[in-house]
Structure formats: C-alpha cells, structure tokens
Design goal:
The chain has one domain. Strand 1, helix 1 and strand 2 form a beta-alpha-beta unit. With about 70 residues, it is of the alpha+beta class.
Length: about 70
C-alpha cells in the first residue's frame, strides 16, 4: 500500500492536495522552487486545520499529527 506521496507545486491546488493526503495519514513531501511559497502553503494548511477544529471536525491532537 502506498503511504508516501510527493506534491510538486505548493500553490492553491498543491497545498490543498497535500492537506487532504496528510489528513488521510499519508506521509507528504511538498515540493516547490520557492521557499516563500512553501512557507505560505504550510501557513495556509495550518489555518485550514484551525478552521476544521473550530467546526469540531478534528481536534488539536489530530492537527499535530497531520
């Protein structure tokens, strides 16, 4: 069973794809030529997870695991 994936491009689609795979217990490597874009993607994913916590879809511990 595949449990490791790489997502090339940390833009809107890339960070969304990485988020969904991470949430489903995959090991994700997010790749982009821009370090700033990678940082922005991580920030966006974190904000999206916070929104899921606020909606009680996940908890803080699950966010840390993701």
């Amino acid at each position: 069973m595949i449990k490791n994936i790489s997502v090339i491009g940390a833009g809107t689609m890339g960070n969304g794809i990485a988020h969904v795979f991470a949430q489903h217990h995959f090991n994700v490597i997010l790749i982009d030529i821009s370090a700033a874009q990678l940082e922005k993607a991580i920030s966006t994913i974190s904000k999206n997870l916070d929104r899921q916590i606020a909606k009680e879809l996940i908890n803080e511990n699950q966010k840390k695991i993701i």
